[in-house]
């Protein structure tokens, strides 16, 4: 009996995993309105290579990849979650003023290449290979030095 229950539990879990990673390409006008406005405001000249919707068990997210390699990720309501500008800098209007002030004071030559936020923290990656983490009150809580390994 235990084996049958275990078998059904495994089959149920596998079925859930198969449906959990449901990514599909969408058009830009299928993005939430808030995400569309964000793109028009901060990336008006960037050509979009791909827009996709990612569904998990409990959440829906969106990702937009631009032709130049930059990308933005959005929550289901269209608010931004991550902006990654690998070869340029994150538009200054996206970065909270307190984080801009901290970076310009402590790393005046550094540029912000990536910013990510969740319900508790902001994380920024600088072009000097530092990653700074701030709490919601914009107090620095962690610094990581990114290591580049060359083989």
Provide a descriptive summary of the structure in words.
A 9-stranded antiparallel sheet has the order 1-2-3-4-5-6-7-8-9. The protein has helices at 2-20, 33-42, 97-106, and strands at 22-25, 48-55, 60-66, 71-75, 80-84, 112-117, 121-126, 130-135, 140-145. It is built from 3 helices and 9 strands; from the N terminus they run H-E-H-E-E-E-E-H-E-E-E-E. With 151 residues, it is of the alpha+beta class. The protein starts with a helix and ends in a 6-residue tail after the last strand. The mean pLDDT is 88. Strand 6 (112-117) and strand 7 form a beta hairpin.
Which structural class do you get from the secondary structure elements? alpha+beta
Specify the number of helices: 3
Estimate the strand proportion: 35-45%
Q: Main β-sheet, in a few words?
A: 9 strands, antiparallel
Q: Could you give the count of β-strands?
A: 9
Kindly report how far apart the N and C termini lie: 53 Å
- Lateral arrangement of strands in the main beta sheet: 1-2-3-4-5-6-7-8-9
Backbone shape: globular
Share of helix, binned: 25-40%
Give the overall pLDDT as a whole number. Answer: 88
Question: What Rg, in angstroms, do the CA atoms define?
Answer: 19 Å
Q: Pick out the low-confidence regions.
A: none
Report the oligomer: single chain
- Secondary-structure element pattern, one letter each: HEHEEEEHEEEE
């Amino acid at each position: 009996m235990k084996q049958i229950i275990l078998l059904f539990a495994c089959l149920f879990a596998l079925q859930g995993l198969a449906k959990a990673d449901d990514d599909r390409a969408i058009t830009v006008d299928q993005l939430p309105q808030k995400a569309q406005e964000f793109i028009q405001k901060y990336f008006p000249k960037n050509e979009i290579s791909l827009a996709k919707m990612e569904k998990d068990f409990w959440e829906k997210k969106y990702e937009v990849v631009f032709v130049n390699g930059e990308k933005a990720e959005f929550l289901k309501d269209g608010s931004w979650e991550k902006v990654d500008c690998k070869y340029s800098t994150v538009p200054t209007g996206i970065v909270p003023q307190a984080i801009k002030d901290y970076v310009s004071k402590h790393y005046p030559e550094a540029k912000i290449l990536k910013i990510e936020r969740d319900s508790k923290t902001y994380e920024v990656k600088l072009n000097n290979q530092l990653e700074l983490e701030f709490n919601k009150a914009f107090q620095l809580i962690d610094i990581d030095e990114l290591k580049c390994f060359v083989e």
